[in-house]
Amino acid sequence: MTGRHYDPPTALGFSAAVVLLWRPLYLCDGGFWLSFGAVLAMILFLPEFRGLPFQGFLASLSVNLMLFPIILYYFYEFPIYSTILNLWVVPLSSALLALGMAGSLTCFLFPWAGEGILKICAWILTLFERSCLFMLELPGSRWVAGRPGGVRIGLYFGILLLIYVLWKRWKKVWPLCLYGIGICLLVYRPFDTGTLSAVVLDVGQGDCIFIRGPEGGAYLVDAGSSDVGNVGQYRIEPFLKSEGVGKLDYVWVTHGDEDHIGGILELLERQNIGVKIGALVLPPREVWDEKLENLGRTARSFGTDVLVMGEGEKIREGELILTCLGPGERERISPGNEASLVLAVQYGAFDMLLTGDVEGKGETLLTRKLLEAYPDTEWEVLKVAHHGSKTSTGEAFLQAVRPGYACISAGRGNRYGHPHEETLERLGAYGATVLSTQNLGAVMIQVVEFEMKIQYTMKEAGAYL
Q: What is the pTM of this model?
C-alpha cells in the first residue's frame, strides 16, 4: 500500500504496535509474548538453516530457545519434549485452522460435507491431546525451574543475541557453547544454605503454610479454602512452581475440614502435571474422621505414602526440627478442630507454632504441654488457630506462648467474621503484632542466622499491623 518493500521485522513490529494500541495490557499477557516471540525466532533463525538437514527440528528448536525464558516466567516449568512434539503439532495447526474455517463455511451450504471436514479437525485435536499425554508419561517430561527475574531474562537474551551475531559473522558452531552459560544464568537458583523460610499463603478462608528448610527441603502444612474455587490448582500449585518446587517432601494435614484439605486433594490428583507429594502426614488414627479416611485412601491410590505422626515425634533437616505437639494417641479428643495436629517449627533460636484449628479441650491440653515442655521458649511467630475465631487462642494459651507475631489466615469479608475482635484484643494485650492475610496477602518469614525478616505481598498494611 505504501509502495515500500515488505520486510518481516517491520511487519512484526507494526503488528505488535497495533495490538498494543488496541489492548495495552496485552504487554503483561503471556500469550502476546509467546506469539510474537515465536514469529521473531522464525524470522531471525530460519534463514540460517537453509540447506541444512532436519530443518523442521531446527525450526522447532529455535522457537523454543527464544520462548524458554517467557515460558518459565509465566508457567514456571518447561516441557522437555516440546521440540519433538512441535514437529507435527505446528504443521497440523495450520491444517487445523484451514479445515476449521472451511468446515464452518461449508456447513451453511452443505451441512453433511461441513460436518465431515470438522470431524477431521476433531481427529487432529484428539491426536494433539493424546500426544501430549503420552509425552507427559515419559521420564523427565517436565522441568520445574521456577520464575526467573527480569535481570536473569535480560542476561539470557543478551547471550542469545551474542550467539546470533557471532554465528552471522563466522558461521561456526563454537558460539553455541555460550548457550549453556545463558541457561545457567536463567535457571540457576542459588540456595542459601542455613536459611529457613515460611510463607503463610493467602488462600482466602482457609489455611496453607509452605516451609523451605535450610537444606532445600519443601514442606506444606494444610492446603484448602472454603471461598476460593480450585485453590490447589490455581493458587497453591502456581506458587509452588514459581518457587521451583516440583516435589513436596512432606504434606501435613492438621484435620479433615474442607478449608484445610481441599487443595491437597487437588494436588494429589494433579501430580502427573503439577507438584508431586512425597508423603502425606496425618494425625493419629484415633482422631481420624471420614474425611481423613478418604484423604488417606486417595493418597495411596495415587502412589503417595501415608504416614501418621503422634505427639513427640520429630522430622529433622539440619538444624530445623519439626515436632508434633499433639494430639496424643491416648487423649480422648473428638475428631475435628479439637484434635488438630499441632507442629512446633524450631530453627536455632527461632520458634514458630502451627496450630491448625485447635480449640476447646485440644487447646487446653496444648497449653499444659507448652508449660511443661517449653516453659522458657519465646515463640517468635504463632499461626493463630481457627482463623482467629472467638472460640480459640484463649488467655491461658496466650500466657503460655506470648508470641511476638501472630499470623492469621482468613478470607476477606468472610461470613464467619474472622478474625474476631475479642481475639485481636487478646493478642494485642499480650504484645503480639498481628499479620493478617486479609490485609497483607501472603506473609513471608525468612530466618537467616539470627535475623528474622517479614514481608508480605500487598503494599499497604492493613488495620491490624
A: 0.90
